Amino acid sequence: MTLQAPSSVIMVRPHAFQSNPETRADNAFQTALPLTEDDVAALARDEFDAAVARLRKAGVTVHVFEDTGNETPDSVFPNNWFSTHAGGHVAVYPMFAANRRRERRWDVIDLLKRDYRVQDVIDYSGLEADDLALEGTGAMVLDHAERVAYVARSKRADPVLLERFCTHFGFEPIVFDAVDASGAPIYHTNVLMTIGTAYALVGLNLIANETRRATVAARLAEAGRDVIDLSADQIANFAGNAIELTGRDGPVLVLSARALASLHDDQINLISRSASLLPLDLPTIETAGGSARCMIAGVHLARR
Q1: If we measure between CA atoms, which residue out of 240, 187, 245 comes closest to residue 216?
Q2: Which end of the chain is more exposed for a tag (fewer CB within 10 A), N or C?
Q3: Is residue 226 part of a domain?
Q4: Which domain holds residue 143?
Q5: Is the CB of residue 3 less than 8 Å from the CB of residue 144?
Q6: What is the pLDDT of residues 74-113, one digit of tens each?
Q7: Residue 220 to residue 208: CA distance in whole angstroms
Q8: pLDDT by residue (tens digit) across 145-202?
């Protein structure tokens, strides 16, 4: 395992999956399928099971939790409500949408404490009572090696909470405004950018301010990474919503098949210098506005 690319992950198998009506207002990536809710949920479970099988075949340790409730349509995206950090640290986050707050489950934290070295759990979720939200590694894209938290401004990334997280966990915040091709604000930073060990994928032209755009590109490059600039169309196809993990044979970039199809040959070649690509078929799950990265909560903890 490298600092940026964990070898173990947490994933939640959904049972009541659908495109969440409570998040549709600010998530322009969401769409709807002309199917019954039961059919959509069944397709999402099939995609989830196939994704877990592919990750395990690549040598990634996957801890699967079943979500059997009917009130958590976005439960397949656990990276928003908790994160883990080297040194044994865990954060639990407040969520913006009321029905997403039901996704938090302490049996996940209990497994982490049992199987990994957990020193402390900092729980920010009580700040939901003050209508504050910081949606984990959706709102923040973390450079674990350089200790930088990249954040696109949104209702899901409260600046006071961000400052508190960065103070507790030792990150420098780099905050910017970002909009999609239609001018709508990017709802989660992790649809805009992915940071691997030797490369970064980022939709630079969607960062509104030219100075901040240059700052983001420079900071990513300072660590010796190849900065791969994604177009607005590639971002719309979830090419920014990927995650680097460590498999049996080294680093793998996990992304959706749709995202991979949007990448150009030169971009694929740059990634392939240091990581193999692992595409997952996620057409149903992507209708909820998230893709491969959103499904995967990396475990940046040492095993017991």
Answers
A1: 240
A2: C
A3: yes
A4: 8-298
A5: yes
A6: 999 999 999 999 999 999 999 999 988 999 999 999 999 9
A7: 17
A8: 999 999 999 999 999 999 999 999 999 999 999 998 888 889 899 999 999 999 999 9
List the CATH number of the domain containing 216: 3.75.10.10
Residue among 202, 303, 302, 300 nearest 4 (CA): 300
Q: Residues 10, 63: contact at Cβ < 8 Å? A: yes
Q: Which of 25-29, 64-68, 154-158, 256-260 has the highest mean pLDDT?
A: 256-260
Phi, psi (deg, nearest 5) at residue 69? -80, 175
Residue 223 backbone dihedrals phi, psi, to 5 degrees:
-85, 5
The yes-or-no verdict on residue 220 having pLDDT over 90 is yes
The domain total for the chain is 1
22 within 8 A of 99, measured Cβ to Cβ: yes
Query: Position 96: which residue type?
Result: F
Alpha carbons 118 and 110: distance in angstroms, whole number = 10
3 found inside a domain = no
Answer yes or no: is 55 within a domain.
yes
Closest of 195, 139, 149 to residue 169, by C-alpha: 149
Structure tokens at 18: 């659908």
For the chain, where are the E strands, in sequence order?
Answer: 8-13, 61-66, 82-85, 89-92, 120-123, 140-143, 148-152, 172-176, 193-195, 199-202, 226-229, 243-247, 250-256, 276-280, 297-298
- Which ranges in 223-291 belong to alpha helices (H)? 232-236, 257-262, 265-272
Q: Let me know the angle formed at the C-alpha of 165 by 191 and 195, rounded to the nearest 5 degrees.
A: 35
pLDDT attached to residue 35: 72
Task: Select from 97, 104, 63 the least CA-distant residue to 82.
Answer: 104
